[in-house]
Structure formats: structure tokens, C-alpha cells
Amino acid sequence: MTAHPPPATAGSRPQPDPRPSASTDAHPVRTVDVHAHLLLPEVEALVADLPDLAEAKALDARRNGPAAQAVSGPMVAERIPRLTDVAVRLAAMDAQGVDVQLVSPSPSHYHYWADEETAEKLYRLANEATAAHCAQAPDRLRGLGLAPLQHPEQAVRALEHAQDQGLLGVEISSHAPGRELSDPAYEPFWTRAEESGAILFLHPFGCTLDERLDQWYLSNTVGQPTENAVALSHLIFSGVLDRHPELKVIAAHGGGYLPTHIGRSDHAWSARSDAGAGCAHLPSSYLKRLYFDSLVHDPQVLRALVGAVGPDRVLLGSDFPFDMGTEDPVGALRAARLPDDDFHAVRGGNATTLLRLT
């Protein structure tokens, strides 16, 4: 899980950029943050007494290690008001100069271990609760639901349910137990998402490198970018993006390591028959069919990301309100010193088009 902290007291966190909100910089585009989370206590109450939850928590503890667990618990607890209270969320958005958030449930709510009956209850509850949260400020908040990837046939119904609730699509992880995103069982899901114009927000939860990353919060700092890169590579090399060229996928964390190291994938595709068998074009060409958030924590990497995928494929992202996000997403974007047109496209122009904001 991306560790996500609580609201800090005044002076304990970086202050937002002192200049006016980017949306008032004599430019009409609103500032849109596509990576913001919601905590759903009702989902956790649903699974609290199920026996398989203990095993899932034990796996999470092994992957993260005791030191990370000790920090993450209080951090999330502190942030509960920003994760649950719309008024607190809107005040924080105002302080950041953010006009619109695309809100998705905390990835800790995936619970891909759940059986079919529980999974259906879970996605319905999550979708309805997320829609209700966003409905309290419909001009400022848009939402994404959840889809149980452990049950591919159910994922289609979950997507349809999310859209019936007025949500723009669903958030998914980088894999499900025993299944990669290249699994043919997901073809109906990709088909439905493409046909309906749904947004799919690819946000990993946990890393399969397990105990190798259980110190120094490597489970997140190394694990999340790794999971992003692996998941996107499965979509590319398996031909999913050839078969579904209009799929709308937003990759969290700037797509992880893949966009800035895509040359190695291109070389393998050209040099080896096994690497090039599944997709029709150079892997780097598919980056321009995907979207990426700007949350890379380094202005040079952000410039490299924009260079690799194009300025029309990067969207502002903060990971609100967790500690591995940024308190000042517009300031972080400004630090990359992009050309003005690219800056405003990433700040909100691209998301306004993708999310069909009016």
C-alpha cells in the first residue's frame, strides 16, 4: 500500500507554492489532481470478521516489515479527516490550488483475497460510498470505483456498476493472485472499458518481491515503481493495447521505472523473438497510448517522463493525502520548468479532456 499520512499541524509540512493557484495564472484551465484517495470504513467493516483477512494482513506485514507498519498506522490515522470528510478535503484542495480531484479508494481496500460473494458486496459498497462522497461537491470531485481482479468475470459487472453510480471508471492494482494483467481472462474487462470510455487507474498495492523489501520502506520506494513497470509491460508485450487501442489507462507514480527505461524494452523487442512475439510495435510507441501521473518526486525525472510519453499524456497527481505524495503538486510541477503550454496541459488541460470535465 502507498503509505498515506494524516493532516499535519501547521508548520510541520511543506507549504503550498506561495504564488497564486495555477488556474488563476491568466490561464483558464482548471487544476486537476488525478491521484487522490478516499478511506472507506464501511468496506473494512464488511471484511473485518472474515478469516482470510488475517492471512492477508500477515502477508502485508511481511512485505512491509515492522518498522514501516509502526510508522504507517499513525500516519494514516492522522489523515483520516482528509480521507473521509469532504469539507476538510476541499479546504486542503483550496490550500494546494487544486480545483478538481479524481478520487479513488485507498488501495488497501482492494482485498483481492475475497471470495465472489464478498467481492460483489465489497465493490458495490465501495462504488456507492465513493459516489456519495463525490456527490457532496460535484463541481470539485469526480470518482473511481473498484473492480475485483481476482474474479475477472465479476470485474466487468463492477465496472458497469461504478459507471451506473456516476463514477468515471475503476481503480485496479498491478496484478491479482495468480493473474497478471496480460491474462486472457481479462479480455472482456478491457473490451467493456474501451467500449464505455471508462478510466482505469492503475495503482499497485504491495510488491511481490516480499521480504526483500521489508526494510527502510523499500516496499514502497522500490516496490511501487517496480509493480507499475511490470504491470504496464504486461499490457504492452501481451498485445492488450494492440487489441484495445482506445483503452484509457492512467498509471500512478509516473508509470514507475518503465517510461524512463523503455529503451531496454525496445532493444529486447528488436533483438529477441520471444520478447517481440506479443505486440506489433516497439514498446516505446505504446507509451503514447497511456496516461501517467506526475508524481515522481524529482523535476528532472518529470521532464524525462514528459519527454518519453509526450506532454499530452501526463496528468497532475499528488497521492493526496498520504506521506508518499506531495503537499504541493502544482509547485512540484512548476519545478520541472516545462514550457508554458506543457505546464498548463499537465496542470489540468489533459485531465479536463480525458475526464470530460465541463
UniProtKB/TrEMBL annotation:
InterPro entries (UniProt xref): ACMSD, Amidohydro-rel, Metal_Hydrolase
Domain Amidohydrolase-related: 32-357
Lyase listed as a keyword: yes
Region (Disordered): 1-26
Keyword Transferase: no
EC number(s) given by UniProt: 4.1.1.45
Pfam families reported in the protein's UniProt record: Amidohydro_2
GO (cellular component) term, any one: cytoplasm
SUPFAM superfamilies hit by this protein: Metallo-dependent hydrolases
UniProt keyword annotations, A-Z: Lyase
Transmembrane segments: none
Name of the molecule in the record: Aminocarboxymuconate-semialdehyde decarboxylase
Coiled coil: none
GO molecular function: aminocarboxymuconate-semialdehyde decarboxylase activity; hydrolase activity
Listed GO biological process terms: secondary metabolic process
Species in which this protein is naturally found: Streptomyces collinus
